């Protein structure tokens, strides 16, 4: 299994995806095809945390008046399943590894994984 979960309207996602040969990867645009419970469970197995998958930059946080500091793991899980913008993206997942988000360290790890030097 090799999947990438991303948002097509996200410039950062597009920029990161463009760096790699994703020919044999399944590309999932999460607005068109939301993440399934089973997929989220698979991500959780690899991260051991729903919070690690949660985007604290989602516009839905303010719109819903959420206090992120008071959220439980169950809250993070429910929110991730409820709205696509709560997923930190992009998410690259293989049988053995997961790369979550667009922070510099994660992108560097992805580049090593793909054998790309920036």
TrEMBL record:
Q: Which Pfam families match?
A: ArsC (PF03960)
Where does the sequence pass through the membrane? none
Q: Which InterPro entries match?
A: Arsenate_reductase-like, Thioredoxin-like_sf
Tell me which family the UniProt entry assigns to this protein: Belongs to the ArsC family.
- Xref: PANTHER family: ARSENATE REDUCTASE (PTHR30041), PROTEIN YFFB (PTHR30041:SF8)
**Official protein name in the record:** Arsenate reductase family protein
- What lineage is on file? Bacteria, Pseudomonadati, Bacteroidota, Flavobacteriia, Flavobacteriales
């Amino acid at each position: 299994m090799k999947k990438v979960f991303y948002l097509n309207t996200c410039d950062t996602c597009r920029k990161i995806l463009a760096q790699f040969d994703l020919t044999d990867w399944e590309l999932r645009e999460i607005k068109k095809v939301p993440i399934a419970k089973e997929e989220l469970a698979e991500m959780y197995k690899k991260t051991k945390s729903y919070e690690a998958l949660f985007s604290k930059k989602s516009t839905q946080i303010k719109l819903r008046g959420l206090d992120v500091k008071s959220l439980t793991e169950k809250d993070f899980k429910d929110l991730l399943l409820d709205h696509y913008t709560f997923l930190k993206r992009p998410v690259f997942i293989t049988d053995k590894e997961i790369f979550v988000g667009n922070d510099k360290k994660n992108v560097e790890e992805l580049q090593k994984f793909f054998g790309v030097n920036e």
